[in-house]
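Following the same procedure, backbone shapes were mapped to integers, as reproduced here:
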Amino acid sequence: MSVVSRLALGTAVLGATLVLHAQAPAAQPIPKGTNVLLGRVVEMGADSPISGAIVTLFGFFDAAGKPVARIPQGLAGASDGRSILTTADGYFVFRDLPAGRYTVGVRALGFAAISSSQVIEISDNEKPAPIPVRLWRYASIGGRVVDERGEPVVGMIVNALRRSTSGGRVVMSRAGSSVASVGITDDRGVYRIAELTPGDYAVGVLSTTTTMPVSVAGAMEPSAANVDAYSDMSLQLRGGGLSRTWGCEECWASSSDGHRFGNLVLQRLGPTMPLAPGGQPLGFASSLYPGTSSVRDATLITLGSGESRTGIDVPIRFVPTVSVSGVVTGPDGPMKHQVVRLVPPGVSLSDFDPSGIAIAVSDAQGVFTILGVTPGDYALSATFMELSQMGGVGRALSAVQPLAVGDSDITDLKLILESGAKVSGRVAFKTQSASRPTQSMQVTLGAIDPLFSRTFPALVQSDDTFRSIGHPPGRYTINATPPTGWFWQSTTLGGKPLADEIIPLGSSELTGLVITFGQATNGVFGTVTDANGVPDADALVVAFAADSTAAWRDGIFNTRRVRGVWATSKGAYEMATLAAGEYFITAVISRTPINLRDPQVLERLIAGATRITLGAEDSKNMALKSVVWTGK
């Protein structure tokens, strides 16, 4: 594999482990120099040239035009890019470059674009050698959706899904953007999902519905004459965690969509369903290939570069549905236009992706009704968050309760939203100077439980203290962005270290959280060589917490405790700002995706890893030998 060809590998490693950021152009251009960068864009595996690809070069220099001493995490702050097209043989060349460090982004039709996290090093008076940049060709999955009689189902949305572990639970979430991760069945019931990067996928039809009062649906009509009503209703619904995009065809949130039942509108992704003989709407339970509703039993399909898999048929069964209704209340009484969710097991909850979830919006009296529900076990949940314009000041309410749905309507439910536990503490600055940063800061808590995916910010006050607005019971990750020139060194609760920066919340306020920033950080750096002692530019260096209770073992990933960085074109690597503690560190080479958000993958990496200990300001030089990743 090449110096910068990391698309599907990077895609698998992104998120809490390794984020491949698109480089945002900065105002400062790459300085002039006398060096040349020669490269060639080829297809992963086949190594055939890719012509007409757009290659954009980014550099890392300070305001004076000097190369930066350390590449920032996530490759932020790159200089303004230069772009060229590859030749018929896939070659590209950049001239007049100063010595320094660079990275490239590449786009080509039929291939997944990359914004590489691997760094190219250029030295003065160095003879340019061609650097291969390999792209993953898009892969595809296809098949049919059929009903219980084997008849094709037309207009059904089929999702490509990633299976992962979150908070100890196996969940499914849609892979990538809605355009790339879905297919729609034609008149034969045939679908094809055509823009997938290599990796493991489940395929399924997800039952996704929204039930709302006619008045709410009317306010959500995205027409030019309805801008004010749309804006006002969107603001109300956003407090309950429901986000819709103006004019989005998949958002199906207008009065003209769906079935009308009295003063309710039932909207669903996919085809319009007929009514059952009894008058209730037909529906279906979410179905994953080869025909299961359990995320654990779904068959994963492994795709290589450019691979096309067919015959992945998904059966669904239409059945009469029931309704679930009740009243949602808060401390001040019934909650108007509150979002209520009915979540089946194994669904990854997101404000922006309602796939697989039944949603309802309450009316002016707080009454909600969820239509089109199939029998099964669910969690009925709701969250409400209100922030002031200053941020961090307001309130948060939540409720969750298990619900078993049978063959009859469920009525008169009472869903009571209550204030959650608050978290309070302070930030500390480890320095000999009496001065402190003046820029505003926030401490953010992210819910680990898939039923609560929202983040809850707390504004740091002028006296360095913070107090959050309240959260549902559960576990939360802590995130704090240090001021410019400072580094997050440690986190303690009640004077004891929080290695994974995770806190449990119950019904009482949690106090004594201290986040300490310093003007120095730790780091591991060195070189990677292959079995012949040659610098290995294809290596991914991985560091992950070594203690037996590390959160990644429970499917909880934190970039301060699990990190992956690519070796540079000269086989060098550097990794900084890890949380203090013990780590396994290893270097792997592979032409298949490595998912660092999979606990089983990290477990398999332990055998070839070295164990090290890092303090908050330790700097260690580690020479590593690369090992081949086989996935076993």
